[in-house]
Design brief:
Elements (H helix, E strand, L loop, with lengths): L1 H24 L6 E17 L10 E16 L5 E9 L13 H4 L2 E10 L2 E7 L3 H4 L46 E6 L6 E8 L20 E15 L2 E14 L4 E2 L2 E2 L6 E13 L2 E12 L20 E12 L2 E15 L7 E18 L2 E15 L11 E14 L1
Antiparallel strand pairs: 1-2, 1-18, 2-3, 3-4, 4-5, 5-6, 6-7, 7-8, 8-9, 9-12, 10-11, 12-13, 13-14, 14-15, 15-16, 16-17, 17-18
C-alpha cells in the first residue's frame, strides 16, 4: 500500500502543479469534443466437438462495437488536458466460470482524464494499466475475430450459452482491467518510453463511490504495473518492442488449516516484439509475444479474483505475420498456452491445461474505414486431470471455424 500511495501522491502533485501554473497565466477556452468508434460483425460456420446439455447449430453471428467520446483542451502555456469515454454497445459480460458482477455487465468501458506536457502524460480514471497499454503483440488481419485475444469468439461451451475458453490465448497483462487507477508515461526519448500505474482496488467506482475495502476474501488489490517500450525505424524497418510487469497483493488469502490455499500474490510478465518493412510493392509485418503468470490458466476476473499460486506456471505466446499489397492482406497467426491447474481437492495436486490456436486470413479494404476478412481458425484444448471437466466428457475439445468479418471504423 505504501508504494501505491507514493505513486498516486506524486501523480496528483504533478497534475495540481500543472493546474495551478495554468490558472495563474491564462483563462482556458472550452474543451473541443470529437466522436469516433468502431463496429465489428462476423458470421461463422463452426464444426466443434459435441457434448454437454446443448444442441449447437453450425452457424453463428456475433457483433462487437464501441462509441468513443474524446475531448481536448490546450492552454496558452502548452499544457494539454483531455477526456475520453468509451461505451461498449454489445456487452454480454459472460466469461467461462464467472458470476456476473455490476462491473462486468455495464456498458461503460473506459472513462478517464489526461494531462500532458513536456514532462509526460498522466491518465486518471477507469483505464487500462501500463502493462496492458504498452504491450506489443503478433500482427493479425482480422480486427475482432482472432485466435489470440479475440473480441469475437465462436467456440461454445456445450454446458452453457457462453464461450469455451478454459485457457484464454492472450498475452496482454489485463489483470487490473479498466478499474480506477492513476497512470504515468514519460516522454519518448531516443525511442524509449517508461510507464507506471497504480490501481488500489478492483472497482470502477460507479456513481462516485470510492471502494476502499482492503480485506476482500481472495481478491487481488494494490496493482502495480511497470512498462518499458521501444519504437524506432532503422533503414526503413519499423521496430516495436515492450517489456511489462504486473504485481498485486492478495487482500485475504485462503488457507487450508495452516497451509496456503489459492491466495498467493499475483505476478505477471510480458514481452513482445514486432517489425515491419516494405519489399517492393509489398509490406511485411512479423512479430510475437509471450506472457508468464502465476494465475491458474492466466485468468483474472474484473473484480480482482483469481486462483494465484507460486506453484502455478502459466505461459501463453503468439507469433504471426501479415503480407500486404494495395487493399489486400494475407496473414497467419499461431497462439499457444500451457498452465498448471489445481487438480482434485488439494491445492498442491496440480494438473495441466493446454490450448492451441491457428488462424489463416485474407483481408480486403474496399474503401476508407471498411475492412473485410475471410478466415479459418483451428482451436484445440487439452487437460491432464483426475476428472475431466470439459463438456465433451473427455480431456480434449476441438473446433474448426470459418468466418467472414466486416469491420467499420466510425
Amino acid at each position: 500500500m505504501t508504494r501505491g500511495l507514493a505513486l498516486s501522491g506524486a501523480s496528483i502533485a504533478i497534475l495540481l502543479l500543472g493546474l495551478s501554473s495554468a490558472a495563474a497565466k491564462d483563462k482556458p477556452s472550452r474543451m473541443q469534443f470529437t466522436v469516433s468508434g468502431y463496429a465489428n460483425f462476423a458470421v461463422a460456420y463452426v464444426d466443434q466437438d459435441d457434448g454437454g446439455f446443448l444442441s449447437l447449430r453450425d452457424v453463428g453471428i456475433a457483433a462487437e462495437a464501441e462509441v468513443h467520446f474524446k475531448g481536448r483542451l490546450t492552454l496558452d502555456n502548452g499544457l494539454h488536458f483531455g477526456f475520453r469515454a468509451e461505451l461498449e454497445l454489445n456487452r454480454s459480460g459472460e466469461y467461462p466460470g464467472a458470476f456476473l458482477t455490476s462491473d462486468e455487465a455495464d456498458l461503460i468501458d473506459e472513462v478517464y482524464v489526461t494531462a500532458q506536457d513536456s514532462w509526460g502524460e498522466i491518465q486518471a480514471g477507469s483505464q487500462d494499466g501500463v502493462a496492458d497499454q504498452m504491450g506489443v503483440f503478433a500482427p493479425g488481419v482480422s480486427r475482432a475475430t482472432r485466435v489470440s485475444d479475440g473480441e469475437i469468439y465462436f467456440f461454445q461451451d456445450g454446458y452453457s450459452d457462453g464461450e469455451f475458453r478454459p485457457l484464454p490465448l492472450r498475452t496482454d497483462l489485463y489483470g487490473s482491467d479498466d478499474n480506477l487507477k492513476v497512470v504515468y508515461f514519460t516522454p519518448r526519448i531516443a525511442g524509449f518510453q517508461f510507464g507506471v500505474s497504480y490501481t488500489p482496488e478492483a472497482t470502477k467506482g460507479f456513481s462516485g463511490t470510492a471502494s476502499r475495502a482492503d480485506d476482500d476474501f481472495n481478491q487481488q488489490g494494490d496493482f502495480i504495473e511497470l512498462g518499458l517500450s521501444y519504437r524506432t525505424q532503422i533503414e526503413g524497418v519499423d521496430i516495436a518492442a515492450a517489456l511489462t510487469y504486473l504485481t498485486a497483493s492478495n487482500e485475504d488469502p485462503e488457507y487450508f488449516g495452516s497451509r496456503l490455499g489459492y491466495g498467493d500474490d499475483l505476478e505477471e510478465l510480458h514481452f513482445g516484439a514486432r517489425a515491419g518493412f516494405a519489399l517492393g510493392d509489398f509490406r511485411i509485418v512479423a512479430g510475437g509475444s509471450i506472457r508468464q503468470s502465476n494465475a491458474e490458466n492466466g485468468i483474472i476476473f474484473s473484480d480482482g479474483y483469481t486462483v494465484a499460486l507460486d506453484a502455478i506456471d502459466a505461459i501463453v505466446w503468439d507469433a504471426g505475420f501479415t503480407l500486404s499489397r494495395g487493399p489486400w492482406t494475407i496473414g497467419a497467426t499461431y497462439s499457444a498456452g500451457e498452465s498448471d491447474i489445481i487438480d482434485y481437492a488439494a491445492a498442491d495436486d496440480l494438473g495441466t491445461q493446454e490450448g492451441h490456436g491457428w488462424e489463416f486470413s485474407l483481408g480486403f479494404v474496399p474503401g476508407p474505414g471498411v475492412h473485410l476478412t475471410l478466415g479459418y481458425q483451428m482451436i484445440t484444448y487439452e487437460e491432464e486431470a483426475v476428472f475431466p471437466s470439459y463438456f465433451t466428457g473427455t480431456d480434449k475439445a476441438e473446433a474448426d471455424v470459418v468466418f467472414l468479418e466486416t469491420a467499420l471504423s466510425l
